[in-house]
Amino acid sequence: MNEFELKYGCNPNQIPARIFMENGDKLPIEVLGGRPGFINFLDAFNSWQLVSEIKAALKEPAAASFKHVSPTSAAIGAPMSKELKAMCFVDDIDGIDSSPLALAYARARGTDRMSSFGDFIALSDTCDDITASIIKREVSDGIIAPDYTPKALEILQSKRKGAYNIIKIDKDYLPKEIERKQVFGITFEQGRNNFKIDSTLLSHIVTKNKTIPQNAVRDLLIALITLKYTQSNSVCFAYDGQAIGVGAGQQSRIHCTRLSGTKADIWNLRRHEKVLSLPFLHTIARAERDNVIDLYITGEKSDLLSDNVWQQYFKNKPEELSKEEKDDYLSKISGISLASDAFFPFGDNIERAAKSGVSYIAQPGGSIRDDDVINTCNNYNIAMAFTKMRLFHH
Question: Do strands 119-123 and 62-67 pair parallel, antiparallel, or not at all (unpaired)?
């Protein structure tokens, strides 16, 4: 197959649409289920690169959850605590601990469940039965992986009455060094971003605190690789082997930091005892539960706990999670890693990062205000490395 006809492009009016190899070679994929669309393939190919690079850098199975050509999260298959499994809605999955890939996807999907609704999934390794069983019960548009076990493929092909998008990619496929795309009928050409992200990028530590432990090195690498495939401007918070807050496509750096920091705060607050013990009615679907949890934490629906409202979601009325409780809980958070795809122009980004428990930062450096940014890090005893490499992605 050297071309694949698409139903339409980004929007229904954009026809005809197809993907193909300009040189006439075969496409490095097989479609094993469904009929992926234009945006599905954009998500698939970007997410596949992301998980492949994490696997190469950390030698661990990796998974990503993508929406609109940016990751909601990416993760490796690190062990999950009982609390984290409950938070990610996988505490009832038998045998999950035996599958690092399933743990990776459970983490990636569970990081920002509202954004992951209808995601496109990428797996660095062969999709196994346990991972497929997690995917089956989530609302998702499709998956890309190098292979599938027979049982996993059977599970996935039964999803959405057989219409679920399943892509198998040749794990040995290497694209050409030069890439092209057209905008407004004009062809753009550039060298592919083959820059290798590894621990050597973190050797130039510019702050008084020079200590970045190995777990933070791992998290910073995950954050940097995630940013490499996130629409810029972008900032990524990471912790415990996964991205916990991705702020994508903002015009201002501080807005990236605020957005990703807020997502990281919500991720942390979902571990709060009051959130984990919310007494949901059994009739509440998973997606609706995600929405209610978000409203409970953020307070966006101010009447959530008022009479004639809480009864729609809960068996009994939960206690409020007050601002003071949230502030107290978050004030005890530390050890978070943060990466930025371009330099921080002002110290206000560091001030905001510190509020979310950031202890380690990786960013390119090169701003005329680097001294201000470094001094702000020193005020919070944050260790910061200059990578000297921008990671814009458009």
Answer: antiparallel
For 64-92, what is the mean pLDDT? 96
Residue 353 to residue 262: CA distance in whole angstroms: 10
Check if the beta carbon of residue 285 is closer than 8 Å to that of residue 292.
Answer: no
Confidence at residue 24, expressed as pLDDT on a 0 to 100 scale = 86
- Asked if 248 and 263 touch (Cβ cutoff 8 Å), the reply is no
Q: Which CATH number fits domain 273-320: 3.40.50, 3.30.590, 1.10.287, 1.10.10?
A: 1.10.287
Instruction: Please classify residue 229 by burial: count the beta carbons closer than 10 Å to its beta carbon, then call 0-12 exposed, 13-18 middle and 19+ buried.
Output: buried
Helix 100-111 crosses helix 129-136 at what angle (to 10 degrees)? 20
pTM, full prediction:
0.96
Amino acid at position 231, single letter: Q
Helical pair 348-355 and 253-269, crossing angle rounded to 10 deg = 0
Domain 197-269+331-386 of CATH type 3.30.450.40: no
Which residue intervals of 98-193 are DSSP H helices?
Answer: 100-111, 113-116, 129-136, 150-157
What count of other Cβ atoms lies within 10 Å of the Cβ of residue 17? 16
Tokens linked to 11: 């929007």
E strand or H helix that includes residue 123: strand 119-123
Angle between helix 370-379 and helix 348-355 axes, rounded to 10 deg: 30
* Cβ partners under 8 Å of residue 322, min gap 6: none
pLDDT of residue 104: 98
Considering the domain 6-15+25-174, what is its CATH architecture? 3-Layer(aba) Sandwich (3.40)
The model's pLDDT over 12-58, given as tens digits with 9 standing for 90+, comes to: 999 999 999 988 899 999 999 999 999 999 999 999 999 999 999 99
C-alpha distance from residue 369 to each of 155, 202, 261, 343, 347 (Å): 54, 20, 22, 10, 8
Dist CA 388 CA 167 (whole Å)? 36
Per-residue pLDDT tens digits for 338-360: 999 999 999 999 999 999 999 99
Beta strand 234-239 with 336-340: parallel, antiparallel or unpaired?
antiparallel
- Give catalytic residue positions: 67-68, 233, 394
Tokens encoding 325: 């409780």
Question: 169 has which bridge partners?
Answer: 29
